[in-house]
Structure formats: C-alpha cells, structure tokens
Write a structure and sequence with these properties.
The chain is an all-alpha fold and about 1050 residues long. About 60% of the residues lie in helices and about 0% in strands. It contains 40 helices and four strands. Strand 1 and strand 2 form a beta hairpin. The longest helix is centred in the first third of the chain and has 66 residues. The termini are far apart.
Length: about 1050
C-alpha cells in the first residue's frame, strides 16, 4: 500500500513493507465499509483460509503500529523535558531582574547626592579637550606654510589652495584671532597666496600657449629635428560629439565645476607638432615631448582615453571633493582637465580678474614672439636641409611651373630645347613673375608651408583660449569669482562689479582679435604690403605697386596709426587694483618690451610680394574654418570680419587688378614684338612636341604659358577663378585678333582667301575626303556618295575661273610658311586651351552663380579653342587652294597653243619645271612647321587639279602631234616625280590621276575607228565632254569624218 511508504519501519523489519504492500487498498479508504468483506467471507467456499489471511494481515498492521509508536514516543518525551527546562530558566531570570531593579534604585539614590560634583568634573573635561584641540590646530597651522610650499614645488596647486583655504578659515575662528603667535603664520600665508597665484598664472600661461607639462602640444619649436607629427590633426579633432560651448554650458555648481558638466561633455583634442616659445615668469618651464601621468606615458589620444577615468597626477594629494570627482569622471582630454583645474584654482583664490588682466597684457607680445620663433625654427630647418644637399643642385633648372590638379604640367628650363629657342627666356620676357613666384613655384610653396605651420600653432593656442574663456564666462555667471572661496568678502579683494571687469577684460573675442591681427600683419609683411596700402584704393594700389621699391621694415610706425581693410583693436583692459599692482610688481615687464619690429619672414621665403597672396588664401580659409568650428554659437559672428575677409578683399581689390595689368602687359609684349610671329625652325622635319623642337610661334607659345600661369592662380584661389578665367579669355581674345591680323596680312586680296569664303567651295572642300585630317570639332560626317565627285566638281570650279594672274596668288613663300606655322601654332594653343578648360576648378562656375546671375552666360574656354582651331583650319585651306591655283596658273599656258613638236621630248615644259620647283621649294619650307598629314592635305590636291587642267586644256589646243603627246606625258612624269618626293603624300592617288592624263592623251594616237571602239568599251573612263575634246583637236595624220561628234553621241547614248 503506497500510503504506508513513509512509515518509520526499522531496517531489520523491511518484510513488513512487503506485507503491507499485499494488503488491498480498499482497507485504507477514508470511509471504510465492512459489509462487502463480510459478504465475501460468508459466501466464500474456504472460509477458514480467508479468515486466517485476514488475521495475518491484522497482525502485520498491529506490528507496524507498534513500531511507529516506539519511534515517536522517545522524541515526544524529550520535547516535554526541554519545555520544562525552559520554564525553569525563565523563572530564575525573573528573580534576578527583580534583584537588579532593587540595586539600581539604590544606586540612583546614591548618585543623586553627588550630581553637582559630577557636572563640574564633566565641564572641566570638555574644556580641557577643547584646549587640546586648539593646541593641535595651532601646531598644524604653524606647519601649513611649509606644507603649502612643498605642494607648490610638486605642482599640486589644487591641494595647496585647499590647505590654504582651510588654514585661513581656522585663523578666522573665534579664539585664534587673538593668538599672537599666529600673526607670523598669517603673514606667511598672505605671501604664499601671492606666490601661489603667480605660480598658477605662470602655469596657466604656459599651457595657454602649449608649453606646459600637460599641453596638447608638448614639443618645443626650438627642437631642430624634422619630426613628423604622430597624432591626429586639429581639423580631425574637431569632430567631437558635442561642441565646447555645449559642454561648458552644462556645468553646474556654486564654487566647483558641476559633475554633470564634466562627465557628460566631450572636448576636442589637438595634434602634437611644433610648439611655441614663450619667455614667461617661470624661467625653468618644462618642455616635454610626452605628458606623463601616474608613471605611464601618454603618447596619443588613445592612451589618454584609457586614463580618462583615473585621477590626474596633479590632484593626487588633494582632498576629495565634488570638483575632483567631476574631473575624475570627465571624458575631456588631459590638457583640458588641467586648464579646468587652474581656472578653478584662480576662482578659489579670487584672483580671476587679476589673472585675466595680466593674460590680456601678455597676449599680443607672446603671439608675436611665437610667430617669430616659428619662423626662426622654419629657417633653421631649411638651412639644415640645404647644408645636406649637394652644391651641384644649384645649377639645375631655373624654375618649375606646375599647375596642380588635373591641368597639364609644363616645364621651363634654362637648357636650350632642340629647336634652339629658350622657352625659359621667352617666359622671363613676358611673365610678370619669376619662376619662384609662379603657381607651384618655390616661393609659393615656401609661403604656404610657413603659413600653414604658423596658423596650425595659432589654432591650437586659440583652442586653449576658448576653453579658458568659456569656463570664466560660466563661472562669472554663477557667483563672484573674485572673492576667495569660503572666506568673508574683503574690500581689498573685490573688483568692479561690471561684467567687463569680472574677468579682468578677458573674453573669447580678445584672443581671436589679437591672433588675427598678428596673422594679418605677418601676411602684410609676406606680401610686402603696408597696412595703409592694404586699405588703399585698388586703382591707386595698382599704380603704386608698379613703381614701389620693397622696404625691409614694414612695422616701424606706431600701432595706433595702422589702417587695415578691417580693423583689429585690442579690448582696452581697465585693470582692477590688484591687476595693476601685479603688473607693477614686474610680472608683465617682459611683455612691455616685446619686439614689434617685424617677423623676419624674408629670411625664410625665397621671394616676397603681392603674388604670394595666392598661396596664402587657402591656409587662411582652412584657418577660418577651424576657428569657426571652435567658437560657441553666440560668438560665431566674430569671424565675419576677420582674417579671411581681409585676405579676400586684398585679393579682390589689389591682387586681381595688379595681376590683370601685369599679365596684360605680358600679353601685349608677347604678341607685339617683331619676332612674335616670325617662323623659326632649326630642324628639317616636323616634331610633335615643344620639348623636342616643335616650332611654335614665340608669341603664341608665350601666350600659352601665360594662360597656364593665370589658370594656375585660379586653381590656387577657387573663389576668384571666375575673374581669372575672364582674364584668360580677354588675353586669348586679344591674341586671336593679333593672329587674325597676321593671317589677313598674308591673304588679303588674294584669290585663295576669296574662294574659301564662297559657300559652294566651302561646302565642296568640307565634302572632300582629304578634309578628314582637319580638326574633328570642325569636321562633318558625310556619306560616301557626297564625297565622290566633290573633288572633280571643285577642280571644275577652279578651272572655270577667269585666267589667273600672278597678282592673284601669294608669291611670297615666307607668307605661306607663316600660314603653315600659324596653323600649327593655333592648333597647339587650341589643344592647350581645351585641356586647361577641363582643369579649371568647378568652383569658378559655382562662384559665378552665387555672386551674380547673368542674363547671358559668358564664353567659356572651349569656345576660344574652337575659334583658334577654325582659324588654323582656314590657314590650311588657304594653303591647299593656293597650291591648286598655282597649278592652274602654270598649266593654263597649255591652252591656245600648238603642240606640234618635231622631236622626242627630253625635258618637260618650262612652266612645268617652274611648277615642280615651286612645289619642292614650298614643301621644304613648310616641312618643319606642319605634320605629314597636313602636308598631304596642302599638296595633295595638286595632282587632281593638274589632271583636270591638262585634260581641259585639250579643248583649247589648236593642234597636237604625236611628239606633242609625248611632251605632255613627259610633263606628267616630271610632276609625278616632284610629288613623289614629298613625304606622307598619297602616291597611289598621284599615280592614278597622272596615269589618267597619260592614258587620255595617248588616245590621240589611235585612228578614228579604233578610238570609237575604245570609247564603246570604256565609256565610263572619261566623261562625254572629255571624249568630245579628243575628236575636236586637230591631230596631223588622223582622219576625222564630219559626223564624228554624231557617231560619238550615239555610242555614248547607248
């Protein structure tokens, strides 16, 4: 039975469980009914056995019950004994408590009799304890000065101020004010307060200019190694999750920085590169390459982030408080935390106004000195690099002009090219700038590198000023930051309550103004532009620069007399009493003697001048972007009238007008000289590149170089690219007019020029297959059917002209050579313009659209390239037509004469000899100036014209015999030989045209009937008109019937 499984049956009687399992479960139901069991026994056949079985089961159950009773009986007895013992203990305790109450009542009566005496003893003990405490405090205060000095020596400024403030509070406590022995301690603490202030101010000043132990830029500019910075740049570091203004705006608290503001904010990190030099109060300021914290070297922003939640080393000896906890939890970089600590120290001392006044006093001299030191370091680095280079390098190329970006690179070298002409000399003759000052020149690169380095340093310095300025503004808005923390207000420590005096005149706008002012003066020195000149009228400035002699000292005048395009004026600092006292004490003596006589940039730059504004523009633009990203929103307007505005105004009002005047002079000089359009070649064959001797006209070559140079300026200053491109367009237009003039001088009143202007001839020349060599932009796609017959039709037009006179032709070979050279030069310039047009910055069109909307879009460089290419094509067309007209002019002597020779022809006719010699002479003259493909175009039309002229001449001949036919064939052979001597000529076309002439005239040898038979078989070889010429001419010995023309017509009609 399962219900008995948990009964406590002994292990030696396990058989009882088996016996219980055999008992039917019906005996153990809750409502037992015995009737079924009685009926079962009564009706059973073996009643005795069933009764015996029931008795055995009853015995088993009784035995199990006995075991259960034995198991639980012992425990029950023990429990009864335990309860009895507990009752006994409670009874004894009650008796003892009664006795204790009785004893306490007796003690109360005894103490009541001595209450007054005990009170006196307690009061005496309290008094003695207080006296002992005061003595301990006095002993501790006496040790405070030495402790503060030790903390100052260890640069534990925050801990030193905590000790100072706690000691000052103790000295003000009642009971200690009258202690005479503490007067000396008070005096020492007063001195230590001033010393502590100066130490904090020195350290703050050093970290403001990145010369401190925990500065973001730890390396000194006096390091002469050329070490490459290993951390991220400032521009990248601006990508923090929240701007500085948001971080500092969330700071909360009375006299401490709020925990929320320090832990939830983020701050921009700065890169490590060359630092700055500063001659401060602390002569032994440390210059480190790495900031060390808790025995670990912080080399970059990653290591700093790993240590961000550790307690900074300068707070290791400080008593934990809200500010320390906030700094520990802050995500800001190490140098920002240190600046926060220094500002907090000044606030706790109540010396913010004095510190702000002195920082303002030192700001401009320090920045000036930093810039000078940076320039000196740059110069020393350059000198070291020069000393290591070979002396032979000095005899290299004079200049290397590189238009950066996609534009074509070009070189100008002292070495004489293969064509014998010095490109460098041509460049120096027309360019207003030297190769050093040209775009990409050494002077431009040096100025950009120098300004980049200086402006990067200035950006890092300004970042620290933004941190300090925002912290001071935040603290000033919370409480009086010029009253020492936890001390009662003292009239000697309070400053003027005006907002401008709270920080001693120091605001974010002040360092921004001074920094930009110093940078502007440096830029003026680099550009050799005095501040007065920078604000002068543009026209007067341009005239002045033409006659100006550079001056070495640009800053001799007093600062109050300077006039800038925009004005930088330092905020006038109305010093508080303590600030004036501190300056009189000598902290600012060095500042008052700072040199304001220039920066010495001339020693670093190969050359100075107004054209360096191109290399200055981009660094200033990047500098302004960085500065703008640092400024809080409420100060963002401070950069609107800053350094970038000055630079842009200077470029717009002075550089661009000067550049236009100078380059216009260069263009005028290039195209007006006598040698500008004088073809010169020192090779007999054409070369495709200028470097190998391509004889480009000197005037056009100079214009090409000037155009590349001006577009180089456009790439350096994308905002002004539109104006510079317009300058180039103006120069190209003027040059085109000059080229057009030279072209007209050569072709004016000549028949070839008039012919190519006719629409019918122009159309036929365009359809001619030979025109495929012309520039593709001017070519036209034509069908094969249009090409066929265009040459024949064109020749017929030439032959239909009135007799050509010698005055109608260009007889001067030099003019023809000029046209050939002009064509090739124009095509070279057109290709160059096209490439430059693709390389012009897209900012040009964008700036044009942003500045003003024009009714008509200006011409682009591609249109000028098309004009140049069209004029080059016209030159080639004139040359081709001229040679065809020369052929017609010489061969027209065949008409109206009798070719009745009496012997075999050994020499060609005189007019053919004249023509062939002229062809050879002109080909040799043009060979160096045009490519072989163009030569084929110029001379390729001669044979077709000669063939047509020879065949047509038969119609005007009176008589011709067999020897005359041989003479004409001899003429064609001479012409073929002359044409074959021209390289790149289409020999197959020449032979085909002249064979046709020979075949035509050899038909005169045939009898009339044989001729008709030939015509019948080859009716397509010549035209009907040409076949009729064969029958009209008088051939001695050939019988021609009267109806010859009629029979010919019948044959051709079939």
């Amino acid at each position: 039975m399962g219900i008995f499984n948990d009964l406590p049956v002994p292990s030696d009687k396990t058989y009882l469980r088996e016996e219980l399992a055999r008992i039917d479960e019906s005996w153990a139901v809750a409502r037992f009914d015995s009737l079924p069991h009685v009926v079962h026994i009564l009706t059973s056949k073996d009643r005795e056995s069933d009764i015996h079985l029931l008795r055995e089961q009853s015995d088993v159950v009784e035995e199990v019950v006995d075991e259960v009773v034995h198991a639980y009986h012992g425990g029950f007895n023990k429990a009864i004994q335990n309860y009895s013992q507990i009752l006994r203990l409670f009874r004894e305790s009650t008796e003892k408590l009664g006795d204790l109450k009785h004893d306490l009542a007796d003690a109360k009566k005894s103490l009541g009799t001595r209450n007054k005496q005990l009170h006196q003893l307690w009061y005496r003990s309290v008094t003695l304890r207080h006296i002992i405490s005061l003595l301990d405090q006095i002993e501790g205060i006496a040790k405070v000065p030495s402790r503060i000095e030790k903390l100052i020596a260890d640069k534990q400024f925050y801990a030193a101020i905590q000790v100072y403030l706690q000691s000052s509070l103790m000295l003000e406590r009642e009971g200690l004010q009258t202690v005479g022995a503490l007067q000396d301690v008070r005096s020492e603490l007063s001195k230590l307060r001033g010393s502590l202030f100066f130490k904090i101010l020195d350290d703050l000043h050093a970290h403001l200019y990145n010369r401190g132990e925990y500065s973001s830029v730890a390396s000194s500019i006096y390091e002469r190694d050329d070490e490459v910075p290993t951390t991220t740049a400032v521009a990248a570091s601006r990508m923090s999750s929240q701007p500085l203004s948001r971080r500092t705006r969330t700071l909360k608290g009375d006299s401490q920085f709020g925990i929320r503001g320090l832990t939830n904010g983020s701050h921009r990190t700065a890169s490590i590169e060359e630092g700055s030099s500063f001659d401060g109060h602390d002569e032994d300021s440390v210059e480190l390459d790495e900031a060390t914290a808790d025995g670990q070297t912080v080399k970059n922003g990653t290591d700093s982030k790993l240590l961000s939640y550790q307690l900074p080393p300068w707070l290791s000896d400080s008593t934990p408080d809200e500010f320390i906890e906030a700094v520990r939890k802050s995500d800001d970089p190490l140098h920002v935390k240190y600046l926060q600590t220094l500002v907090q120290c000044l606030c706790m001392l109540g010396k913010v106004a004095a510190a702000g006044a002195i920082i303002c006093q030192k700001l401009r001299p320090t920045i000036h000195e930093i810039i000078i030191s940076k320039i000196k370091a740059h110069m020393e680095t350059r000198n070291l690099s020069k000393s290591g280079s070979s002396q032979g390098d000095r005899t290299g190329a004079v200049g290397l002009h590189i238009i950066k970006g996609k534009s074509e690179a070009y070189r100008l070298s002292k070495e004489k090219p293969q064509n014998g002409m010095s490109n460098s000399g041509s460049h120096l003759a027309v360019s207003p700038v030297s190769p050093l000052m040209a775009p990409g020149g050494k002077a431009q690169a040096a100025a950009k590198d120098l300004l980049d380095s200086i402006l990067d340093t200035i950006v890092k310095i300004f970042e620290n000023h933004v941190v300090i300025g925002e912290l001071l503004e935040l603290k000033a808005s919370q409480h009086d930051i010029n009253t020492p923390k936890s001390l009662p207000a003292d009239v000697n420590w309070n400053t003027d309550s005006e907002a401008s005096q709270v920080t001693g005149g120091y605001t974010i706008s002040l360092p921004l103004t001074v920094l930009q002012s110093e940078c502007q003066q440096l830029i003026c020195e680099i550009l050799r532009a005095t501040p007065e000149t920078a604000s002068a009228d543009a026209a007067a400035q341009t005239a002045k620069l033409a006659k100006k002699t550079p001056k070495k000292d640009k800053r001799g005048a007093p600062e109050d007399g300077l006039t800038f395009t925009f004005r930088f004026t330092d905020t006038t600092v109305s010093l508080s009493n303590q600030g004036a006292d501190l300056i009189r004490q000598g902290w600012g003596k060095r500042a008052s003697n700072a040199s304001q006589e220039g920066y010495g940039s001339a020693a670093v730059l190969p050359e100075q001048g107004i054209y360096l504004a191109a290399s200055i523009y981009r660094p200033v633009l990047q500098f302004t972007d960085k500065i703008t990203s640092m400024l809080p929103k409420k100060h963002s307007q401070l950069v609107n009238d800053g350094l970038l505005t000055f630079t842009e105004n200077f470029v717009k009002d002075h550089l661009l007008p000067t550049m236009f005047v100078d380059y216009r002079k260069g263009v005028q000089q290039a195209i007006s000289s006598a040698a500008a359009f004088r073809p010169r070649a020192h090779t007999t064959t054409y070369t495709p590149t200028v470097e190998k001797g391509r004889p480009i006209l000197q005037g056009l070559l100079a214009i090409d170089l000037l155009a590349k140079e001006v577009l180089g300026w456009a790439q350096a200053m994308p905002k002004f690219a539109t104006d510079l491109v317009k300058y180039v367009q103006t120069f190209l237009e003027r040059t085109f007019e000059r080229c057009r003039t030279s072209y007209m001088e050569a072709v004016l009143e000549k028949l070839s020029y008039r012919l190519i202007g006719r629409h019918d001839i122009e159309r036929l020349m365009r359809l001619d297959a030979a025109s495929a060599c012309l520039p593709s932009s001017l070519g036209h796609s034509v069908s094969h059917s249009e090409v066929v017959g265009s040459g024949v039709e064109l020749n017929d037009l030439f032959l239909s002209l009135p007799p050509i006179k010698q005055d109608n032709l260009i007889r001067d070979d030099n003019k023809l050579i000029l046209l050939a050279s002009l064509s090739d030069s124009l095509e070279y310039v057109a290709d160059s313009i096209e490439r430059l047009g693709q390389a012009v910055p897209r900012a040009a069109s964008q700036a044009e659209g942003n500045i003003r909307s024009q009714a008509t879009s200006p011409r682009n460089l591609a249109s000028f390239a098309d004009e140049y290419r069209k004029l080059a094509t016209d030159c080639l067309k004139v040359l081709r037509v001229e040679m065809q007209l020369e052929t017609v002019f010489h061969l027209q002597e065949m008409t109206n004469r009798e070719y009745l020779e009496d012997e075999d022809a050994e020499e060609p006719d005189d007019f053919v000899i004249s023509l062939t010699s002229q062809i050879t002479r002109r080909d040799e003259g043009m060979a160096p100036f045009i490519s072989g493909e163009k030569r084929n175009y110029v001379f390729g039309g001669i044979c077709g014209t000669a063939a047509s002229a020879s065949i047509k001449a038969l119609s005007d001949m009176r008589s011709i015999n067999l020897f005359g036919v041989q003479q004409i064939c001899r003429n064609t052979i001479a012409l073929e030989q002359a044409m074959a001597a021209i390289p790149y000529i289409d020999g197959e076309s020449v032979q085909q045209n002249l064979d046709r002439v020979r075949t035509y005239f050899e038909l005169l040898h045939m009898p009339f009937e044989a001729l008709l038979a030939f015509i019948a078989e080859h009716d397509q070889m010549f035209t009907p008109t040409e076949y009729s010429y064969l029958l009209k001419v008088n051939v001695p010995g050939r019988d021609t019937p009267p109806d010859a023309q009629h029979r010919l017509s019948e044959i051709l009609s079939h």
